Structure formats: structure tokens, C-alpha cells
Amino acid sequence: MSTTTPTIRIPGPAGFPLIGVLPYLSRDPCGFCLKAAAEGDGLVRLNAGPIKVYLVSHPDYVQQILVTNAANYIKGSMMDGIRLALGNGLFTSNGDFWKRQRRLMQPAFHARRIQDMVEHINKVVADGLKRWTPTIERGEPIDILTETIHLNIEIIMNTLFGATVESERSTRLLDLTNKVFHGMTERVWTFFLPRWIPTPGATAYQQAITSLDEEIYSIIATRRANPVEHEDLLGMLLSIQDEETGERMSDGQIRDEIFTLFLAGYESTASGLTWTWYLLSQHPKVAAKLREELDQVLGNCPPTYEDLPKLTYTRQVIDEAFRLYPAFPMFFRSSVDTDILGPYQLPGGSQIILSPYATHRDPRYWDNSETFDPDRFAPERFDARVRHAYYPFGKGQRMCIGEPMSLTIAQILIATIVRAYEVELAPGVVITPRYAMTYQPRHGLPLILRPRSDKH
């Protein structure tokens, strides 16, 4: 960090009078951030209504914010609309409280627990393929986004609650979660408004949160009234005890963490997988190379946890898809004190957007940045420079706790479906992305799955 105070003005587009660039951010935030980052030098000032927002895309600046000087950057007011739903869970909390919660929850994501999930993941996928079979046999398209969300919901529900939530309640939870997720997306770009100012959809958003609260608290109360040991995340949250203080989690804390894992987990992996299948449908040579690896490693058997490290090209395909289409294309932070980023002085109290989407597509850091090339993640090419510019799950101590689980689910779903079917985009379909906290095709992704022509 420089010992002198830089005087270089942080560049950025002016936008409209009074409202600045807010119309661009609300209409197409990812496209706008990509364009603004390309015209800047890794740090861009955005006028957003009455306040200044700074877009950060340079890998060195991202490293400073998320790793080397992370204490200066908190989950601030840009998270308020999200915090309304997620409370003080891992995704939104700060400081010592966050560290405590992370420490308590880390065992739930150890390798042994993820290994125990594999059998259930395989069953969910096998049941899904059976459900799709009539549609596949008729040669009709399947909306792979919707179907992958349903598969992921089944996996996440089992991880959170085991077999203790009946199907009717599961359907109700999914419906409420979709409403809350939609409300969170609508609130992102109203962060600068006082809470007392009415905004469209605010009442429906609060009602959905309240209804989902009732469902979660009811499940917690039932478990507390019947303290049988359960091998799921809720059972673990109810039983864990802080070794330093002896405290257990309150119902409110458990609610916040369940909310966070459910809302952040169910759609992010599904969105990333959807783009992976889209890219494979557009790049048959990559799909063929992927099938060769799957045939060699798996034969006719479902993937096991021990198989996953051997599926190196499968992982490269997923990594490259997550580079082009990170499930969470933007992260939000607020600076506490003034900081120096390269030649620029970033004021304290600033609102910050970090954009993996923009960094991952910047030709200053990636060769042929818009090209789908899984081989760029081969060990001989994925060097320190490239690794420095890749952060689909974040960086540093606040890197997504669910990354190992997400990648395990992704590898198994890709391996199972691609090994059995060739995928092609339904005729006449035009894919338009949209930002909805995650990044996904606006109208889903209708794919036609055809049984492999080279294997019976």
C-alpha cells in the first residue's frame, strides 16, 4: 500500500441527473458492470442516486478488499434489503459474530458430511431422469433450469431437514422461497432509500418472509419437542455448542442460518449448472471430450465420492462455465475507513460492487476471454496469474462455506446426465440472461435430451 495519498480521480460514467446510473444497474446490472469495467481501470465510480457506488474488478483490488484488508470492508447498507430476509446469518453478518457462526457451522461442510450426501444426490438425479423419460422419448424440450432447481431443492431439503419434512410442506417452502428470492432481487437497487419510503412489492416481500418464518420456526419447535438425533444440518445446529462460551444457538440464529443456506444454496448451483448445459449444447467437441472421461472413469456406474477427484476435465468444464456465468455475478461491501487501491483513494463509507462477472470476462486478465475453453483450467495453464482473477465463490475467510457442496452436486449432475444424453438447444430459442441475485436465462433453458447415439 502506498504511503502517499493518491490524487487521481476515480473515473466513471455520469449517468442521468439526480438518479445517475441507477436505470442501467436495475435494467442490466451485469452487462452495465462489464461495460463500465472495460472502460475503466479496475475501479470505477458510479453515481447511484444521492450516493456514490464503486465498481471493483481489478484482481489486485479484489484481493485487497476480500483478503488482505478484509476487516475494512463489511456487509453494509447495500445488503439491507437482503438482510431483511436473511437476518444475521453467515451471508449478511459481520465481525466477531460472523466468526463465531462460521466456526460453529464449519463442521457441517467437512468432507465426511459431503461424502455422506453422494448416495442421496445420485438417488435424486436417478428419480429426476425417470420423471423426464416420457418427455425425452417424445423428443420434447425440458426446461433444464426449472428441473435443475427442483433437483437441487430436493438435495438441499434433505441436507437441511433430512426426511422430516413432508412433501406438502416442502412444496410450500419452495413457493415461499421463490417469493422471498424475487423480493430480495427487487430490493437490491433501492438500498439508498430510507425504509419508511414505500417501494413496489415491499408488502408482498414482507408477507412472504413472515410466512416462511412461520414454517421454519414450526420445524425448529417440532425438533426441539422431539429431541431425537438427526444426521442433518438442522440437527447439528440444534446440538452444537460453542467451545469457548458454552452457548448454543438460539431459535432466531438457527432460523437465520437455515434461511441463508436455503435461499443462497438452492438456486445458485442450479443457475451455474444451467449455463454449463447451455455451453455444452453449443460446443459439441467439448461435450464429446467430457463423455470420453466419464466413460473411462465411471463405466456404467453412478459416480461415487472417490470418483470425483478423477473427473478432472469435468471439473474444468464446470470451472469454465462458472467463469463465464458465475452464479452470483456481484458481491456487495461497504468500506469502513479510507483505503488506497492502486493509484486511487477509496473514501470510507463507500458502497462497493465487486463483479466476478466483469473480472472473469476482462481480456486484460484472460486470453480469449469470451471463449468457452475448459482447457484454460488445466494445471499447466491455470497459473497464479489466472487463479488471482478467478473468484466465483468469493475469496478469503468469507469465501462461500457451501463451495465444496455446490461443486459436488454440480459434478454428479453433469456426470450423470451428460454420460447418458446429448443435449441440444430447442429450435428457435434465443437465450437472454437476467440478474435475479443469481444469473440465469430469463425464460429458462429448453433443452432436448437425446440418448447417446454412440452408446447403447
From TrEMBL:
GO terms for molecular function: heme binding; iron ion binding; monooxygenase activity; oxidoreductase activity, acting on paired donors, with incorporation or reduction of molecular oxygen. Keywords: Heme, Iron, Metal-binding, Monooxygenase, Oxidoreductase. Its cofactor is heme. The keyword Iron applies. Signal peptide: none annotated. InterPro entries: Cyt_P450, Cyt_P450_CS, Cyt_P450_E_grp-I, Cyt_P450_sf, Cytochrome_P450_Monoox. Pfam families: p450. It comes from the Bacteria. PROSITE patterns: CYTOCHROME_P450. Heme binds at residue 400. Belongs to the cytochrome P450 family. This is Cytochrome P450. It comes from Ktedonospora formicarum.
